[in-house]
Every structure is written in structure tokens, then in C-alpha cells.
Amino acid sequence: MTSAFARLLRPASAPIRRWVLTAFPRPPSGGIDYEHPAGDPGLFGPSSVTWRVHSEFCGMLSGGLCALYLQLLHPRALAGVWDHSNFREDLVGRLRRTTNFVGATTYAPTQDAQAMIERVRMIHGQVRGVDEAGVPYSADDPDLLTWVHVSEMSSFLAGYRAYGPMPVPAHVADAYLDETRRVAEALGARDVPGSVADMDAYIARVLPSLMFSERSRVVLEVLGQLDLPVPMASLSRDLFLHAGAALLPDWAASLLQRTASDLRKARLARGALRGMAPLFRLALTEGIDVRSCRRVGADPGLLSRWPS
User: Partners of 138 in the beta sheet?
Assistant: First the structure.
């Protein structure tokens, strides 16, 4: 972005920054210190593709919502949400907790990132039940963890490709999947795809087990009423929900019974968010990505180019 263009857009920065901090407030004092200890690269570090992909707010939020669409197609993943969460009353809280987990495992100092993973492993150990068909499930099931991971990483990658500032070469996409699988494996996942080809083959194997059930429909309706505590809440919700739906692969859109009207709204939202993304990048100059760059003595500008 040229300096002249940045100056032209600067008046929009403050409202966008307020919007983001209202929707996803920083934790109170006592949370993770992303600026210390000096030199600690965390699980990935500044030379990783992951630091770059996860620094793109519009791609990550739309990708996170896309991942929710995908996860409600898996009967056992959906059963865990249905039985062990208050998604009807606190879907925003669930979204924030997922955001905090991804942010911490991406950027936090090593000890904090590992502690976050261990905390989630303990929670997963308590999540058990049977799905609608009577099939037992547990949140620490390695195969289920792999599905949740793939649904998220594929969606974040699609979000960056749609709304990020740079094209994503094939080798960069492969590197991203190879890097991020270390978090899934630390949680207990197995046979985690480490390339786009591996991911496509994995999805092809899982696809026959996916379905759009009555429970899926209920969660989809709740998602459509997501109440973000921000100005113009319904407009913001619809923009990001439709922009997230625009990232869905064709097979998922078909399973979700997306109508012609749904697809048209998704195309419009994709174009709108693509146009707005530079405003978010200009406004968000003190996020955990920038603070983590300071921790390791790196120029935050490196996030705007792929590692060599």
C-alpha cells in the first residue's frame, strides 16, 4: 500500500480498530505477554508461513466461520458441540475461545503456547458421548482432531487466498499445512495432512461420512443469528458470514444445501470484504503478530512477504 493511499484511508482506521477490539477484546491483565521473553520464537517463529497467514484478520475471521460450516457436517464433531457447549447462548464466546487458541499457539512464547495446548487437551478428555446415530465419540479421538484441524487450516488458507494481500504459491500452501500440523499432533491428532495434495486426499476419504442433519440445520440457524457486540451488528455478521461461506468448497456448499440466493450473497460479500481488507490491515498495527515480531527483534514488515 502506498503512503499516499494509506493517508487517504487513515480516517477509517480508528472505527475499524474499535470494532475489532470490541468483537475480540484483549484478555484482562494476567493474560499472555506477547512481547516477552525477548527472543522466544514460540512454536513457529518469524520465518514461518504460519505467522504470515494468521496475521490477516479478514482471512482468519472469515476462515474461522467457514470452518464452523464444515465442522457441523461431521456427525461426531457436531455431537460434541451439541452435547457439551452452550452454543445457543454463547456462540460469540466459542468463537473468541477458538480465536484465542489459534492466536496463542501461533504467536505466544513457547511455554505459553504449550500450556494452552495442554489446557485444551485436558478439556477434550472430558468431552464424550454418542452422536445421533448412537456412535460413541470423544473430543480426544485422534481422527476427530484431525478433521477439526483440517477444516480450520483449509479454511484459513482459503481465507488468505481470498482476502489476503499476496497470492499463495503452491509451495507456500504446502509449507503452511506442514507447519501447522504440529499443533494438531500435539493435541493428539494422527495422520495429519502436510500438503495440499495430502489434504485433498484426506477430504476425499472423509467425505462419505459427512452429512447435513437436523442438528446441523439448527446450528446453522444459530450461526445465522450470531450477535456480535459491535456497531451495525447484523450488517457485520452478515458480511463475515457470507464472506466465510464464499470460501466453502463446492462439495460443502452442496451438502449445506446452499441456494442460488445464498451463493449470490456470498459472491457479493467476497467482493465487499476483499475491498475492505486493506482498511483492516492499515488499522490493526498493534496486534499480537506485531507484538510478537518485537519480541524476537523482527521487522513486522516481514509479514507482508513470504519467507525465502
Answer: 128
Per-residue confidence (pLDDT) for residue 127, from 0 to 100: 95
Q: What is the pLDDT of residue 33?
A: 96
* Model-wide pTM > 0.90: yes
d(CA 304, CA 1): 11
Query: How far is residue 296's CA from residue 308's CA, in Å, rounded to a whole number?
Result: 18
Encoded amino acid at 75, one letter: P
DSSP the chain: --HHHHHHHGGGHHHHHHHHHHHSPPPPTTS--TT-STT--TTT-TTSHHHHHTT-HHHHHHHHHHHHHHHTTSHHHHHHHHHH--HHHHHHHHHHHHHHHHHHHHHS-HHHHHHHHHHHHHHHTT-EEE-TTS-EEETT-HHHHHHHHHHHHHHHHHHHHHHSSS---HHHHHHHHHHHHHHHHHHT--S---SHHHHHHHHHHHGGG----HHHHHHHHHHHT---SSTTHHHHHHHHHHHHHTT--HHHHHHTT--HHHHHHHHHHHHHHHHHHHHHHHH--SSHHHHHHHHTT--GGGGGS---
Contacts of 172 (CB under 8 A, 6+ apart): 49, 306
Low-confidence ranges of the chain (pLDDT < 50): 5
pLDDT computed for residue 228 by the predictor: 77
Look-up of cell digits 480498530: 17
What distance in Å separates the CA atoms of residue 186 and residue 142, rounded to the nearest whole number?
11
Rg over CA atoms, the chain: 19
Instruction: Return the biggest CA–CA distance within the chain.
Output: 61
Residues 110, 121: Cα–Cα separation, whole Å: 17
